[in-house]
Design brief:
The complex is a heterodimer of chains A (254) and B (314). Chain A is built from 11 helices and no strands. With 254 residues, chain A is an all-alpha fold. Chain A has one domain. The radius of gyration of chain A is 20 Å and the shape is elongated. Chain A starts with a helix and ends with a helix. In chain B, strand 1 and strand 2 form a beta hairpin. The longest helix of chain B has 14 residues. Chain B starts with a strand and ends with a helix. In chain B, the strands form 3 sheets. A 6-stranded mixed sheet of chain B has the order 6-7-8-3-9-10, with helices on both faces. In chain B, strands 2-1-4-5 form a 4-stranded antiparallel sheet, with helices on one face. A 4-stranded antiparallel sheet of chain B has the order 12-13-11-14, covered by helices on one side. Chain B has 2 domains: 211 residues, Rossmann fold, CATH 3.40.50; 68 residues, Alpha-Beta Plaits (2-Layer Sandwich). Chain B has 11 helices and 14 strands. Helices cover 37% and strands 28% of the residues of chain B. By secondary structure, chain B is of the alpha/beta class. In chain B, helix 3 packs across helix 4. Classes of the chains: A mainly alpha (254), B alpha/beta (314).
């Protein structure tokens, strides 16, 4: 019961503070619209606007649905993570700094519920935003190229969402550690850098969330194996970040 | 059972001892003024009693429940208004009170009814649908009091509730606090002595993390009554008052005579003798008297005496 009360407030906050709108617009713009449009029209723009554009275009892959999907995965992965950091970095730190956390947590609102409601609300925001971007990208890809395999498209977007949620959870954890949104965001950005650097390492990278993006690409275009270790690591990171945040928050003085 | 019981409470922040063995008790139904200069440990005490901070040592109970052991039980029994309450600016006053009602486990209907009662009590009915982000300081403080009363708390903690308000806002909030007398125990920290004199029946004075004294307000004032008289006279011939004061200083029952502007303050050894003879000396000196009274100390006099005597903080 108390969880639903807290979740309702968090969802309302996502709406009223325009976080839902911002995330949805960013992912729609860069994922839903830009990916298929740029895949289709970049060669034509290069030909029309750049001197010797024809020669450059010959070096590029032919515009296909696969290119659109590749760009979609890249854009949603990159912008999704950046927006995740921005909208989640103040989730707890901001409330501690302003005093709303103290005002609410002297009441019988468990700190674990307070955190869980925030994560679920952020998860809902990103799930809805990815869904909107996915629908738009599917539609434009179908218009400009061909229809995509629906079940693979859904699985691809599920992997993208999981990838973004890893950073939502890590940022929430970092936000719990401090009273400053900037410090929380900095710590989360640091963890992003560390994971990105580790992902570039052979073998180790196969176990890290970055591999989910490769898997997502292979789902549509073929050429690879499912990255189950990365999936389990991602789920583990989310759970560990949330439990860590809860344990730290329980001990904190407000 | 005392409403609040604190035993040997200590709280340190590094080298700083915010609370240094604080011990006190507050009776149920009291409006308790927790007085002290800035940095005395008032807010730290309230943060521990409300479960927002943990003591380094010592124990504390609210409504018979130990605060460090049973935080959730305490949370159901208390209300808390911080010095500058923060709200979600995107919520309306009604939405916020409904949300707090939900947190306390009220049904939607109970919450709606309680919200309406509190909006009326705090005079926010007309602003109920406005977003809190646009509220004035006084309105925010009244909403803060409303949210602290949602669960009909047994003990209400108010941390410097009026210190950031203008005179009108202060008056309104103090009237609301007075209205709570007899309904719950109020524990109000402040350094504004006039507010304590107005609304509190019991006073505890804290300095450097230790309780200096605790007593009903009247008893405290009586305890520190100064045997003094104040005499105010119109300006007469040059040196008239000074000459009278000089003569008075030679009298055996007078301890001291000080003059500030047109007012002479006469501290005496024997109050009864002074009552009989002081006026006669005024008449004899042919002073044009405008005021003559036996001094009753204010809470401020007591506070300053205790704080300065205890450690010379102010």
């Amino acid at each position: 019961m108390i969880f639903w009360i807290a979740l309702r407030k968090e969802l309302l906050e996502q709406w009223r503070s325009y976080r839902l709108l911002i995330v949805a617009v960013v992912l729609l713009l860069f994922g839903g619209f830009l990916a298929p449009l740029s895949a289709k029209y970049t060669p034509e723009l290069l030909k029309a606007l750049v001197p010797n554009g024809d020669e450059i275009v010959q070096l590029m892959p032919a515009p296909t649905a696969a290119v659109a999907v590749e760009e979609y995965v890249g854009n949603v992965g990159q912008f999704g993570v950046l927006v995740a950091l921005l909208v989640a970095m103040g989730a707890v730190a901001g409330e501690k700094d302003k005093g709303t956390a103290a005002l609410m947590l002297v009441k019988p609102l468990p700190r674990g519920v307070f955190l869980a409601a925030k994560f679920v609300a952020l998860g809902f925001t990103f799930a809805l935003s990815v869904l909107i971007a996915a629908v738009a990208c599917y539609y434009y890809t179908m218009l400009l190229f061909e229809a995509l395999d629906l079940s693979s498209w859904l699985a691809l977007n599920g992997l993208l969402l999981l990838f973004v949620l890893v950073y939502v959870a890590l940022t929430l954890f970092c936000s719990t550690l401090t009273r400053s949104q900037v410090v929380g965001g900095g710590l989360a950005f640091g963890s992003l850098m560390v994971l990105s650097a580790l992902s570039a390492l052979p073998t180790v990278g196969d176990y890290l969330p970055g591999q989910l993006l490769s898997w997502a690409g292979w789902l549509m275009n073929g050429g690879g194996e499912p990255a189950w270790p990365a999936l389990w690591t991602s789920l583990g990171l989310i759970v560990a970040a949330l439990i860590g945040a809860w344990r730290v928050f329980e001990r904190q003085e407000l | 059972m005392t409403a609040i019981r604190i035993e040997e409470l200590r709280k340190t922040f590094g080298e700083v001892r915010a609370l240094d063995g604080l011990t006190l008790g507050v009776e149920p139904g009291a409006v308790f003024g927790f007085l002290g200069p800035n940095g005395a440990g008032k807010t730290t005490t309230i943060r521990i009693l409300t479960g927002l901070a943990r003591p380094t040592a010592g124990r504390a109970w609210v409504s018979g429940v130990e605060v460090t052991a049973e935080r959730d039980t305490v949370a159901h029994r208390i209300g808390y208004l911080p010095q500058e309450p923060a709200f979600y600016p995107w919520m309306t006053a009604r939405e916020f009170l409904d949300y707090v009602g939900g947190v306390f486990g009220l049904s939607a209907r109970e919450s709606r009814v309680r919200t309406q009662e509190l909006l009326e009590l705090t005079g926010l009915t007309e602003a109920a649908k406005r977003r809190v982000g646009g509220f004035s300081g006084g309105m925010r403080q009244r909403l803060g009091l409303a949210q602290a009363l949602v669960n009909r708390p047994e003990v209400l903690f108010l941390d410097e509730p009026v210190s950031s308000l203008d005179p009108v806002g202060r008056k309104e909030l103090l009237e609301l606090i007075e209205h709570l007398r007899g309904r719950c125990t109020v524990f109000m920290s402040t350094h504004i002595l006039a507010d304590v004199e107005r609304v509190c029946d019991t006073v505890g004075i804290i300095n450097r993390g230790q309780l200096i004294t605790q007593a009903p307000q009247e008893a405290l004032i009586e305890r520190y009554v100064v045997p003094a008289f104040e005499i105010e006279a119109e300006n007469g011939p040059a040196g008239q008052v000074q000459a009278w004061a000089e003569r008075l200083r030679q009298v055996p029952w007078v301890t001291s005579v000080s003059i500030q502007g047109r007012t002479a303050r006469v501290v005496v050894r024997d109050v009864e003798q002074a009552k009989r003879e002081l006026m006669a000396s005024v008449v004899q000196a042919e002073l044009a008297l405008t005021r003559y009274e036996m001094v009753r100390p204010s809470l401020e006099d007591v506070f300053l005496k205790l704080i300065n005597g205890e450690g010379g903080v102010r």
